[in-house]
Amino acid sequence: MNSRRKILASATTHAPFELASQGAETISLLAVGRPGIFVRLTRDWAAIVGLSIVFLLVGLALTAPFLAPHDPAAQHLSERLQSPSLTFPLGTDNLGRCILSRLLFGARLSLGFAGVTSLLVLLLGVVVGAVSGFAGGFLDAVIMRVVDLVLAFPLLLLALAITGFIGNGIGSVLVGVVSVWWASYARIVRGLVLSLRERPFIEAARAGGVTPIRIITRHVIPNVIPPIIVLATLEMGSLLLAISGFNFLGLGVQPPTAEWGAMLNDGRPFLRSAPQLMIYPGLAISFAVMGFNLLGDGLRDTLDPRLK
Amino acid sequence: MKRYVLIRFLSLVPLWLGISMLAFLLSNLAPGDPATVIAHRLSDAPPSEEQIATLRREYHLDDTLPLRYARWLGSAAQGDLGISYRTKEPVLMELATHFPATLQIACAALVIALAIALPLGVLAAVRRGSWLDHAARVGALLGASLPSYWLGYLLILLFALALGWLPVAGRDGTGAMILPSLTLGLGTAATLARLTRSSLLEVLGEDFVRTARAKGLSEWAVLWHHSLKAALLPVVTVTGIAFGHLLGGAVIVEGIFAWPGVGNLLINSIYDRDYPMIQGFVLFMGAVFTLLSTAVDLSYAWIDPRVRYANKRRIGR
Q1: With a cut of 0.90, is the ipTM above it?
Q2: Is B91-271 a CATH 1.10.3720.10 domain?
Q3: In chain A, which residue's Cα lies nearest the Cα of B20?
């Protein structure tokens, strides 16, 4: 979470370029061209626990159809709000649906949405940031003003407002989130590109007559990817929180879809009578976010051990 | 310094223009023909073609985009952000009446967060590696990982339903404020505690701390007189930013506790497709956040002379 704050700090202190490029400098110094990250990572307990949680959840999500005892949408109306039993290991919800099965299938959506959004955000941020840093001049100035504008808001608020204008549905939630979350990536990638531009090997490529597009795709982007992957991991947790939050508000997936945030929303009316309807999905979200946060923290500590 | 303050506030003007453009363009994302939408929203009876045409003329909807933006910005500058479809009240009035409630829980949440984070962060740094440090780390991890929209219900379950100490929802009395503020503040407390810890650790490794110890000062004096002030500088900046995020995070928390702030207003406006309200919200909150971050920057320059002098040199050049 700290690096998110750092990114935001650079956004709001209006000394964005210095701060962002400083951060980028640190990341690039530590990450670019230093192999063995994963070897060092295995010595960090937080990273190991985080990685295990993430692998476990992804594994459960992938094998949900085999593990789930019931169809997640099947209603057993005679067995509503049951306590845990052999047939329903975590009990049933208000429509007699198996909570465990819904959680397992929910993992596919909750993790899937976060994963897809993360990829889209990464793609957009890297492309825009690389173009901005490499083009310089007017285009760079325009792009960076747009980035300033987006980062002038708390991410969640602007994403909510955009979703509010486009309309309900998971599609518009993802559009809302992606169209806001890319901005901090673009700024960091731009900083990385600016520092890379001055490196001798890029200068050599340019002197050798390599076209700018080829320099970006062949020399710049491959060097930007590793540090950005770290950022993306740090961000997975907050993306999952945000998207499940939208679903909790009822703006994204619609009933009867089994998604963790949506399950929380479905459980709201039964907080008093059947709190387990809200406890389980909340635990699932927290567990997943914790996994991503631990992994991200571990990655960062491994790359930047000074503050450990 | 005066010049610096002036320049910083003037630099808000282009940013606000940008925010207004963003708010205007976003409202054009809304699906459907605007005139038809407005006609449907303003009267309960199905509108006639004629009424729609009148509205189209009245709202100048056939003009070009830049012209409409200029006209809209002109009235927005005079405080006219349109009429809410949902409540039929002026948008600016709605925002102004709901904002104090949001400010109230955001401030309370900040106080709670600081009250938890500062002592915990300092203790964790001083007793580095102790059980307390580990406990603080686990607590910080939990605080960063639990969704507020779940934590809020857990707190309701415990303090409102099981123990019956506090009300479930609403804004009656100070007791009602506690749960929303706590829900909002705990996540921030986690971030601030970690930051305080790492910042203090960094300072404790500095040469001047070694010097202070070498000349025989007590650990307490080293900590209190020499380290804390330097260590809290980054905490001040992040606290300012965190406050902005508390205002933002209030959106979800207010919904849980039926707290009548701007967050609740936004969510209800989204449910109800109240486009003028959402647009007004973007404009209003954009202005609030940029003002806030400028104020944070200025306070930082005021606390840390190094920033001030660096800026003076940059501007003087």
Answers
A1: no
A2: yes
A3: A149
